[in-house]
Amino acid sequence: MTDAPLIDEELEAFLQSGVSLHAASRGAANAPCLMRALGCRVSPDRRQVTILLAASQCGTMLADFAQNGAIAFVASLPSTHRTVQLKGTDAKAGAPQPGDEAIADRQRAAFRDVLTGMGYDRAMPLALTGGDWSDVVAVTFTPTSAFVQTPGPGAGAALARRP
Amino acid sequence: MKALTLDAIRLGLESEIPALIATCAADGTPNCAYLSQVEYVDPSHVALSWQFFNKTRQNVLANPVACLVVVDTRTIARYRMVIRYLRTETSGPLFERMKAKLAGIASHTGMEGVFKLRGSDVYRVESIERVPGPVLPPPPERRNLLAAVRDCARRIGAVTDLQSLLDTALDCIAENFSVDHALILLRDAGGGRLYTVASRGYPDSGVGSEIALGQGVIGVAARERTPIRIGFAQAEYAYGRAIRESALREGLALETEIPLPGLAESHSQLAVPIEAFGRLLGVLFVESDEDLRFGYDDEDALVAVAGQLGTSIHVMQAAAEAEEAPAEGDAIRTPVAGSPLAVRHFAENDSIFLGRDYLIKGVAGSIFHALVSDFLADGRTEFSNRELRLDPRAKLPDLSDNLEARLILLSRRLDERDAGIRIEKSGRGRFRLVVSRPIELVAAG
Question: Who contacts B277 (Cβ-Cβ below 8 Å, separation ≥6)?
């Protein structure tokens, strides 16, 4: 693979900084399914992203990934509205790795700080990012396209690979 | 377990935590997007704000099935819905409701000038599931709104004249809904305008102030005949402040605009049309300096109260004029003393000034002009609604015009001016001109 990874160092840091994360799948008859994620991890070569999701909250999503691998993944920072979407076709669920729980905990704490900084009562961010770790699954995919989705005229533009 | 209904979770639709939608392109590629607004339409439909020509838009036009996730800010309960795109509305009540609400959301989130409603995308809700996860206990309800509506219904149903009706309605709303600032405006059938006939909670009553159909929260509610509700401070619909400012800028020498009352920093506003028998009679307006003060349930409750208010206004108007006019005579003359008061009448718009002070214009102005003319001609002080309705000098725009409301407006303005001339009710469908100073009528302009 000669192309530079789609995710540069700055985006890698953004994705893992404690932002609002959501994943979507495509099910039977092109019916999508959507859920919030607990955290994410970018591979050292920045060519793969692993999303940590609570299986009990996923609806049909895990079955959809097993069936066709199509995924959309959105990361957004509520305080600035900066939003990025990654897409891939090879999403595959597996067990979380050692250390994933610590990664998710750190990202959830950082996201809670963002929300409390915006004036939300502390209970709300805690509940929003809460969840039982026992049923967490790790869904890994290779981003094949990335888009800016910050609201405004530039929304929808594809992120270019940096050489 | 019973299936979740959209009604049961609609408070969660107006969440400060944005909702997300997932869609699939024709080739099956999923897409995820944040939504500014999810509007409850009815028990089986929601409308989503369409603001940009984006991937979501392309996808639902090609493949109408979507997945919506909303989070109730109060409890953090999450709901996932399967929804199906049906149509886009770009005008009409739903569109105007969402457009006004979006103006508040845009202002609150720093997106003024970015968020602009292109259309209201209506979706059928096919299923709703509660996503497992921790939830917070719901905050206590401020008030049982059904009990509040019941108390309003009982008290409004007990009054027998329009003046008491307006006062009672505002009292009931203030007490039952803990609303500190409220207005009742009635429609001027001829001019496409609304005039304030009663208010609560403002330094000046603003009785007699006017607003055009289509202007501000109140004017849009009247034009579209739908409740308009905004949850955050914003400038786009702040009509009252705009006219106050323009009046000040122009430094009007002859001030004939009565300022529309309004909070300087209104955060939540709700305007509900008052209708009866298929006709728009006016608007009930409430506001607050708190964010998100009025929710769907407050809106429903005030729509119910406005419905009863409308029926009562309609019935009282008909009843007042069905009464037989009294025989002339037995006029009560109050002692007249003091310096003469010049009543100046400008024929071009029937505006009236008492000395240098603006009183009223339009229909109420022409009515007052007729009363004063009769008083000066033969000392007459007793009048009936019925004869006035038939009097061409009153210039009533049409037979359905609410004459009683015009008289209440005139009476309140005279009381506020306290210039030695006023009118008071002397019986059902009758009233009396009470003059305690010499007056002279001056044709001005």
Answer: B311, B314
What chain B holds in terms of domains, given with CATH numbers, is 6-131 (2.30.110.10), 145-322 (3.30.450.40), 341-444 (1.10.10)
pLDDT in tens, A85-107: 999 999 999 999 999 999 999 99
Give the mutation candidate from B31, B37, B57, B112 for the A interface (greatest A CB count, under 10 A). Answer: B31
Question: Phi first, then psi: what are they for A90, rounded to 5°?
Answer: -125, 35
Q: Hey, is the C-beta of B66 within 8 angstroms of any chain A C-beta? A: yes
Report yes or no: B227 and B97 within 8 Å, Cβ to Cβ.
Answer: yes
CA A110/CA A142 separation, integer angstroms: 25
- Determine the distance in angstroms separating the CA of A34 from the nearest CA of chain B, rounded to an integer: 6
Cβ-count burial B118-133 (b if 16+ within 10 Å, e if not): ebbbbbebeebeebeb
The full DSSP string for A19-71 is: -EEEEEEE-GGG-EEEEE-SEEEE-TTSS-EEEEEEGGG-TTHHHHHHHH--E
Asked: is A9-148 a CATH 3.30.70.270 domain? The reply is: no
pTM exceeds 0.95: no
Q: Which residue in the block uniquely carries the two structure tokens 């109408």?
A: B64
- Helix (H, G, I), strand (E, B), or coil: what is residue B360? strand
